[in-house]
Specification:
The chain is an alpha/beta fold. Helix content is 39%, strand content 15%. The protein has a 7-stranded parallel β-sheet with strand order 3-2-1-4-5-6-7, sandwiched between helices. A 6-stranded parallel β-sheet has the order 10-9-8-11-12-13, with helices on both faces.
């Protein structure tokens, strides 16, 4: 006979306990990928911190490099680090013993590391010393980057490095299936796919501003294409400009985040980086289609934001982008081929662009931060429910 449950009581799953109970558990996120103008990783951490504070009892601290030591626990903390020359605001921590001491003093119950460089190894060391679990979230395609810079030997060295580093974490996450597959080819077992998400309330077709065209002095009859992102080489912004040149005056390209560009074209508007998500949403929703020529995306968060704004998207057939984009929501083109990009854009406007935009919005809704972080919370609960290993000695680096 099943035992009667006491009235007024409910049995909580680990995930529900983190949501509803006074658990006092502490998650600390650590990453190098957090600068004033950085992209997807920063937006992921900002969204996660906000969501966790509103929906759970889980304490959350984000520890990142900054100009000086600052911050309080359960918020965004900076660890004093020198700026990288010409590094677009990124910083390189050097005082690793002090970093480990500071991380240990936060008394985390779980550490998540968002980059594969020296902070990862030092964070892992603190986790092992404290006997707590550690997650590695692979937001960057190190193997492809190393191969492009050094050639095949660089790619092989990167695979060995990642296999050694990630093999020591309790869980390795990848934002897309293709990154999970590449990590598996490097010999890393048990990689789980954890997609990023989008604020479907902020990024919404209703953010459209009919006056934007006039404010940017774009001809009334022009079809407005938009891209938002850092002007780094892997984004291949030059391919976008070349494709629009070939498309002609009937099309106009708005480049958000590329305000300092030196090359100008009459049908291209360059705008500075926009730190306010509402302004980004306004810009995206006020255009006619989103274009992205980058060939090394590990997820494509800005593509998802454009889709949430109801824009059809045209992206390179490379990296993780084909996992978000198909013929129902836009089109893909051969990477590094401005001619094919121009053809696909023209074909999009010859077809039912409005239907593609509606389909894009529906697809984006399935990636809401609520659904993404609920799934993530289950991973956290699973790891923190596991018996901890005996702490190692030397938590302060001794």
């Amino acid at each position: 006979m099943q035992q009667a449950r006491a009235p007024g009581r409910r049995i909580l799953t680990p995930t529900a306990a983190l949501k509803a109970g006074p658990s006092g558990r502490h998650l600390v996120d650590v990453t190098l990928f957090f600068a004033p103008t950085s992209g997807g990783v920063r937006r992921y951490l900002l969204a996660k911190h906000d969501w966790l504070s509103r929906h759970t009892r889980l304490k959350h601290t984000v520890l990142v490099p900054g100009p000086r030591d600052s911050g309080l626990p359960y918020d965004f903390m900076q660890f004093a680090s020198p700026a990288i020359p010409f590094g677009r605001g990124y910083r390189l921590p050097l005082r690793m013993r002090e970093f480990r001491q500071r991380l240990a003093r936060l008394t985390p119950d779980l550490i998540e590391v968002g980059d594969p460089y020296h902070l990862a190894g030092n964070s892992l060391r603190v986790a092992k010393e404290r006997g707590i679990p550690a997650i590695a979230f692979c937001h960057s395609d190190v193997v492809t980057l190393a191969t492009s810079l050094i050639g095949p030997p660089g790619g092989r060295a990167a695979r060995r490095y990642l296999a050694d580093l990630y093999g020591r974490f309790d869980l390795v996450l990848a934002p897309s299936a293709i990154i999970a597959e590449r990590l598996a080819r490097s010999g890393i077992r048990g990689v789980e796919v954890q997609p990023l998400g989008v604020d479907v309330t902020t990024f919404h077709p209703g953010a459209r501003d009919p006056s934007l065209r006039a404010l940017l002095n774009i001809p009334h009859e022009a079809r407005i294409l938009v891209f938002a992102g850092r002007p780094s080489p892997e984004k291949r912004v030059g391919d976008l400009v070349e494709a629009v040149r070939r498309l002609g005056d009937r099309y106009h390209l708005v480049l958000v985040g590329d305000g300092s560009a030196t090359s100008r074209a009459p049908n291209v508007t360059h705008l500075e980086y926009q730190p306010d998500e509402r302004q980004v949403a306004r810009l995206l929703a006020s255009c006619d289609a989103f274009v992205h020529a980058g060939d090394q995306e590990t997820f494509g968060l800005v593509v998802l934001e454009a889709m949430a704004c109801g824009l059809p998207v045209v992206t390179a057939r490379a990296g993780a982008l084909p996992e978000l984009v198909d013929a129902r929501v836009g089109a893909t083109f051969e990477p590094k081929d401005p001619d094919d990009l121009a053809r696909q854009v023209a074909a999009l406007f010859e077809g039912d662009r409005d239907a593609a935009g509606r389909a894009a919005r529906r697809r984006a809704e399935s990636y809401s931060w609520d659904s993404v972080f609920t799934r993530m919370l289950g991973r956290y609960a699973r790891l923190m429910a596991q018996p901890a290993a005996a702490p190692e000695r030397g938590v302060n680096g001794h």
